[in-house]
Amino acid sequence: MSPTQDAVVIAIDGGGSKTDVMLVDASGAILGRTRGPGASPQTVGMEKGLGVFEQLVIEVVEQAGLPPTRPYGTHLAAYLAGADLPIEEEELSRELTARGWSESTVVGNDTFALLRAGTTDGVGVAVVCGAGINCVGVAEDGRVHRFPALGKISGDWGGGYQLGSEALWWAVRAADGRGPQTALLPAVVEHFGAKDVFEVVERLHFESLPRDVIHELCPLLFRVAAAGDEVAAGVVKQLVDEIGTLVATTVRKLDMSEEAPVIVLGGGVMTGVSRDVIDVIERQCVEVAPRAEVRVVDIAPVVGAALLGLDAIGASTTAKARLRMSAVTTLVPAGVVGEDPDSLVNGSAPGEPDSVGKRAESFGAS
């Protein structure tokens, strides 16, 4: 069924550090877009998180010149960091539906938005490595494989905070003699303008430095590794191996090894690393699926949420192509990193038509 001409999709990308909201009509035209602070309900609480979402939705509705009466749109596509378990998605869906912003609502994890942004049909494997790390896979027949992605308690390793913490950990141990010498030590001290690394630790302990600054050490880690430091390079190798393991596990669970799956890499860490790092990840991916195509997608994830919304209302392939042409950044070939992971930059759309199928989902199994 084709959507009505006045159908409107409200797309939300609720990340850990920022929230993007976009309004798109059935033709694929962007009616408005706004950004606010990170407001994952799992992090800031349901009431506060939904309050931020509502403020941004109202703002973008006003920006688009739409009537200020509910429902504001036809369909709400909300893809949120922290919506990791089905029970969380169901609770968020109930809460968002109760707000009356739209006639229908779908809530999912933001990794699905990345996968949709990097493919023409939402089929393949996506690994997001930003503040945290997560991986999802969707097979041609709709089967879904995903991980709980709850941090260390669910077996996860990686993400910007984890990598920054590792950089600090190795720097401290180099300073006090428990670990090998590493160029991470002077780099961390210089980064914070401290007299030594113990001053950094003390400031973190007494919260004169917020813990969030540990994220800042992630790009520092990659720079030190690229300069040849063995300790830093070891941490980067661990991340690469972890991404390779996530992809390999998902590909095997979904029986994609003999196919040509699209492997989508995204998130601030992935769009900020060197070509050499991406090349190693690509080699690991093709070991499990020789015909795999690896893409680093430098795109605002809200575009993926909007595409999923257009799928849900039955929008045409022309509408989806229009959205891509006006909002999407380049689908970057493996090893080539985009320049601005936080912006919308004009780029080309994939040549195949956009489509999406039904999905049967499970954790840890196909």
UniProtKB/TrEMBL annotation:
Lineage top rank: taxon: Bacteria
Q: Which SUPFAM superfamilies match?
A: Actin-like ATPase domain
Regions of biased composition (Basic and acidic residues) lie at 355-366
Q: Where is this region: Disordered?
A: 339-366
Signal peptide bounds? none
Question: Which parts of the sequence belong to the ATPase BadF/BadG/BcrA/BcrD type domain?
Answer: 12-309
Q: Which InterPro entries match?
A: ATPase_BadF (IPR002731), ATPase_NBD (IPR043129), Euk-type_GlcNAc_Kinase (IPR052519)
Q: What is this protein called?
A: ATPase
Q: Which organism is it from?
A: Kibdelosporangium aridum
Q: What high-level taxonomic lineage is stated for the organism?
A: Bacteria, Bacillati, Actinomycetota, Actinomycetes, Pseudonocardiales
